[in-house]
Amino acid sequence: MNQLVSATFARNNFSDILDQVVAEKKTVILLRKSQPQAAIIPYEEIEIKEKNWQREFSQAMRETRPYFLRWLKKQKINPKKLTEEKLYELIDRAAGRN
Fold first, then answer.
1. Domain annotation for the chain: domains and CATH numbers
2. pLDDT value at 94 more than 90
3. CA distances from residue 24 to 2, 27, 40, 53 in whole angstroms, order as listed
4. What are phi and psi of 37, to 5 degrees?
5. Of 72, 66, 74, 70, nearest to 91 (Cα)?
6. How far apart are CA 30 and CA 4, in angstroms?
7. Which residues contact 13 (CB under 8 A, 6 or more apart)?
8. Which residues pair with 3 in a beta bridge?
9. Burial 50-81 (b: 16+ CB within 10 A, else e)
10. Fewer Cβ in 10 A, N or C end of the chain?
């Protein structure tokens, strides 16, 4: 279970809290006015989340690439000439932001 501490306690005991997070690999939730505001988490959790995100993103890219290339062809857009700026314009247009 996560440990809950006030922001004041965390400020006054930061080194000890950091040592505890590293040693026990547990998250500490920081409270302000009894409301969760932030967390100190083991760095390994960030690495795991990043690896998972990268894996899921790569899988989504592999799965959607053929559909995107077909769509570009229908739009008469040469994928080899597609710039990053043009790609963002297409994304904004598809999302209704343009």
1. 3-41 (3.40.1620.10), 45-94 (no CATH)
2. no
3. 11, 9, 12, 25
4. -125, -30
5. 72
6. 6
7. 5
8. 28
9. eeeeeeeeeeeeeeeeeeeeeeeeeeeeeeee
10. N
Q: Which residue has the tokens 């083991």?
A: 42
With a cut of 90, say whether residue 53 has pLDDT above it. Answer: yes
Strand, coil or helix: 98: coil
Q: Is 42 exposed, middle or buried (0-12, 13-18, 19+ CB in 10 A)?
A: middle
Average pLDDT, the chain: 95
Q: What is the value of pTM for the model shown?
A: 0.64
Instruction: Count each helix (H run) and each strand (E run) in the chain, helices first.
Output: 4, 3
Q: Are 27 and 21 in contact (CB under 8 A)?
A: yes
2-37, pLDDT tens digit by residue? 999 999 999 999 999 999 999 999 999 999 999 999
Q: 């006015």: which residue's tokens?
A: 33
